[in-house]
Amino acid sequence: MIELRKKTTFAFAIIIIAVFSLSSCFDDLSPNETVVQKTIIIPETTRPVTTVTEQTTVTELEPETTEPETTEPETEATEPEPEPEPLPIIDNEWALWLISANHPLPLDYVPQLVEISGSKHKIDIRVKGYADLLFEAAQRDGINLRVISGYRSVEDQEMYFLSVYRYMKSKGYSDETAFYKTIAEIAVPYTSEHNAGLAIDFNLIEEHFDQTPEFRWLAGNAWKYGFIMRYPADKTNTTGIIYEPWHFRFVGLYHAEQIYNSGLCLEEYIDALNISIGNSDYQIVEEYKNYVLSL
Ligand SMILES: [Zn+2]
Q1: Of residues 62 and 213, which shows the higher confidence score?
Q2: What distance in angstroms lies between residue 132's CA and the mean position of ligand 1's atoms?
Q3: Is residue 41 a contact partner of residue 275, using CB atoms and an 8 Å limit?
């Protein structure tokens, strides 16, 4: 009897030791999450595209607060993640280019363009593979995305700009006010992401596009393919552009993931990286204003 009790006690001790060993193993393995959260901002502009593994980890951490609706994402979490292939990309600094009123494209910039699959609109050739994956994934989820605008030439930009400017004038604004009202809605030539072929306007150029399933899908999934919503409603003071739920900008898989998770807009993200990226020219808008007002 005593022998049996000794054996039982011994066996019990072994189990306790085993349980402690195992739990300490799990402690070592555990929070991938913490690591990812701490790496929200990493100044690595030359970092290659993220792997599928990294994306899967972060997917589990999607902050609910950045979702416009909470209805759909829940169901998506249970579906198998679409897996963007690691497309060849030399570096992704070009994808992070800040193109805005104060950061025009170089006047001699010539993007290499290709048609977006199933569309007449073009996009930077380096973005096409990611755009294709995004459209395929949307289709798999029963979402019908259409391209309203992709690459836009500087000439088209000018035409578009002047027509909006004239519309503003027709509403009774003075020349100068009409100009500033216009630049809040359409960038002056050379300062639009469309001029670089790095942005896509989807489906509907209306604010209430954000009430559609297409927008909800894009808001929750576009980052997985390297695209961000570029002009959010709460960042208009920083971007200088009105809320544009239809406009998505390619920034590369890595940066899209960081921007999506951090809730920053591109300007804030680049500031946080503490890098200088893009071409700084604070005169172009003023010069263009003088030109437009002289017409
Ligand atoms: Zn756009």
Answers
A1: 213
A2: 18
A3: no
